[in-house]
Amino acid sequence: MKSPLEKARKNPESMKARILAVARRLFGEYGFHGTTTRMIAKEVGIDISTLHYHWGDKNDLYEAVVMDVNNDLGRELLKVEKTVHDSSLEERLNVSIDQMMDYLFDHPEISNLVLLRYFSKTRNEVDVDFKVPEFSGDIARAMGLAKDAKNPSPRAMMKVMSIMNGMHSFVSGENFFRPMLNLDRKNYIRAVKETLKFILIPAFVLQEGKTKKGRSSGSASAKN
Fold it and tell me: pTM for the complete prediction?
């Protein structure tokens, strides 16, 4: 038997899908505790009983939102990994930043949900969570920082987290940062990409070069 989430994803025009889309946006804007099912129902244009009929209680709906976001992020990261496969680290970073920033800016509720979930002092109890460790391992492997996505080193994980935190922060903080910079949205997104590349690409490429040089020196010493 299909779950409510599976039914919603299969039929984007259904009532379940409409409720899910609004829930993603409102939970992303106000967090779990700041969002009520009545707010969601009102935004969709239905009564509260209809919402509960399709999704159950607030926790059930929030869990579905988290799973929906996990599914979307997983698919997008897989697309990026396929695109950058066998490319140089510099090219992997260039393409990954472009693709992920375009995706996250098109779906800002994802960054909002992730940051609210992990940094809120009033976390709620749900049975599922955002797959940050799993996603970080996949990204580390795609970037060549780890051979095994399931067992990346803490150092590799921290490097990936620095990238993702930067991405999410610029997306989630757009309404705060953009007026400060006096930029329209198109130029803000372009500036974010340029800034991330300016900071991240030299740092990662330089480190890769040092690592390869160290390995070469070690091999030469061993031969001597």
Answer: 0.82
